[in-house]
Design brief:
2 copies of one chain form a homodimer.
Chain A (H helix, E strand, L loop, with lengths): L6 H24 L6 H8 L3 H4 L6 H25 L6 H18 L1 H8 L13 H4 L1 H16 L16 H8 L7 H22 L10 H15 L6
Chain A binds a DNA duplex (30 and 30 nucleotides) through helix 1 and helix 3.
DNA sequence: ACCGAATCGAGAGCACTGCTCTTGACATGG
DNA sequence: CCATGTCAAGAGCAGTGCTCTCGATTCGGT
């Protein structure tokens, strides 16, 4: 990000920010489908065609918002993790989970944008893969650190993954060095369990069934933490 | 559903079916956002306004498709469950999971419609709640049956749910009579873990990381089954 | 200080959407 | 056999994403 030397460059950067800002607000109230270039232009007192000087298409704008959303949840997770005692692995896991949930509840449409149905006709460009795994990187670091410290005590009674899982386990292990295949698989189960819960909660699957979702979430987080072997707490 | 006595009634039912059929195909190729009344009309050789005689609005059509999707996955789950030995509870659980996954992979857009981001501006009417829980009903029956048979042996080392969970547990227990709060919570964790995995798989979160998704899925299903206490198999 | 080049917003316009209203043709049932 | 209700068609409205052109402004090099 260059600071922008000339007046034009600064004005351009400013306007681009404003467009993204308004778009994010629109996203928050209307959802991804309600993203409306003309409404953004109206709010800016510009004509719709002028927007195209800054974002060549609606999809480009969407990509920017997707990257922003991934970055936001990634930063929230990083902050929550950093605020904890590094040796309190179970606490870090819970903090990460609650950070994701708090962010998701505060920004449901942005959560839907990145963890819900893909936008029809939209293909995520390569720029999104970096920000997309920021939260997962933190998660992997917690598990790797806990494993290295020797505090992972996964409950017995669960099946071992088949040998054919070894290849994918190697790929995932880059995020959580050292963990054996068994724990890598459990880590995936815990991670998908976290987002499965949140998707159910945010997308209305809990309606009329689960009232006290905060309580159940806290319990599920502890259960999933134990599944990967994190100490009870 | 009346068989339709008069010619007109039969023609009406037939056309309604055809519209839904074309809409479902459109949904399969374009996604929910690409649902296009005018294109449906074109394909039928009608003019767009005529569609409104059968579906008063686009949302109404969407509701029909949502109910269809819930019904389809519910029936797939019921078939898979019925094909198993009723006493093979672990096998029934696995069959249910694979039925959901097979259906989801075959109909990704319909999966997204019911388990992905809610359609913007669309509020699910009450008609959808019945079909929406058909799969969950089957799931609950399996667990209740296994618990009644005394074959549920949940692994130790997991926390107990807090007393404040009791209220919601009662609501969920209607689907799985007899299960103690602890197992109800685990059942929810397994169920959300199943759909969390599928959402990750279908919505692209596994891209470039997990290749052999079938293997990992099978393992996760067994892991989640064990979590609720179903016997290994 | 100037001037060609790059960039900007405005405006008109295209093809498309969901949806409404009216009109004339038709089948239905008393 | 005729009044009634239903039907498809057509025109039209307000809105969309996006393209193109046209003057005005600003920039960078001379």
């Amino acid at each position: 990000m260059n600071a922008g030397r000339t007046a034009r460059e600064r004005a351009r950067a400013q306007l681009t920010r404003e467009i993204t800002e308004i778009a994010r607000r629109q996203l928050g109230t209307e959802g991804a489908g309600g993203l409306n270039l003309r409404a953004i232009a109206r709010e800016l007192g510009m004509v719709s065609s002028a927007i195209y000087r800054y974002y060549p298409s609606r999809d480009e704008l969407l990509t920017a918002l997707i990257i922003d959303a991934y970055t936001a949840v990634g930063e929230a997770v990083e902050r929550a993790d950093a605020a904890r005692d590094p040796d309190d692995h179970a606490g870090r896991w819970r903090a990460v989970c609650h950070a994701v949930r708090d962010w998701a509840l505060a920004h449901p449409h942005e959560y839907a944008l990145i963890y819900g149905s893909p936008v029809p006709g939209y293909q995520a460009p390569a720029d999104t893969v970096g920000p997309a795994v920021r939260d997962t990187v933190v998660y992997g670091r917690i598990l790797a650190s806990a494993y290295a410290a020797g505090v992972l005590t996964p409950p017995d009674g669960f099946p071992a993954p088949p040998p054919s899982f070894a290849g994918d386990a190697d790929a995932v292990r880059e995020l959580m060095p050292g963990l054996p295949d068994d724990l890598v698989a459990r880590a995936i189960a815990a991670w998908t369990g976290l987002f499965g819960f949140l998707s159910f909660e945010l997308f209305g699957q809990f309606a009329n069934v689960i009232d006290d979702r905060a309580t159940l979430f806290e319990h599920q987080v502890r259960t999933l933490g134990r599944l990967v072997g994190l100490p009870a707490s």
